[in-house]
Amino acid sequence: MNDLPKILEQKVFYVIRNQDYNVAQQICEMLINLQVTCLELTFTIPKVELLIKALRKKYPTILVGAGTVLTLAEAILAAEAGAQFLVGPVFNPTVSEFCHRKGLFYIPGAMTLQEVTNIVNADWEIIKIFPATAFKLNFIQTLKTFFPTKTYMASGGINLTNLKEAKTLGYDLVAVGAFVTGDINNKIFEQEKIKTIISTINQEGV
What we know:
- By secondary structure, the chain is an alpha/beta fold.
- It has a single domain (3-204), classed as Aldolase class I (TIM Barrel, Alpha-Beta Barrel).
- Helices cover 44% and strands 17% of the residues.
- The strands form two sheets. A seven-stranded parallel sheet has the order 3-2-1-9-8-7-6.
- Helix 3 packs parallel to helix 4 (72-81) and helix 4 (72-81) packs parallel to helix 5 (93-102).
- It starts with a helix and ends with a helix.
């Protein structure tokens, strides 16, 4: 897992969810031009593996991973495309075993203490709490009582209103998506608006 140190340095994962390949590609290019260094391309993008491969080739210094990985087949596609990490909304033991075998970093999602325990027992460093806003954000403080050395990502419903709160309460990372680039069907995105949002995120010290 040669990319692990670089992954752990990230504070924000920008999640790209769009049902149009060309729009997703344009969003990625725009974010990279705005100095974003970590992209999570989800399997809601048609032929996402082709976009992962293209971005890895064009921007070798940018971290590019696959998101919404639910099956082993998707994990294999992402790995073959050159994804540097895989993110899932839930923990999949088969995907976990595959990633360990391939030396590929896996960030699975959890909502309960039992689910977090399963991820810890599977020996993964970053645990994605998803959807983080389904309960009070201070749930992270309970988790850190039991597993204080793990790294936690807040994902799902994070925006400019609660992002600072998530960090203050103890989340190490945040994943942001729709509030930056629009919803999954969005074909029009305002670069100046996105630039302002990213600037604000950076100013928050995230």
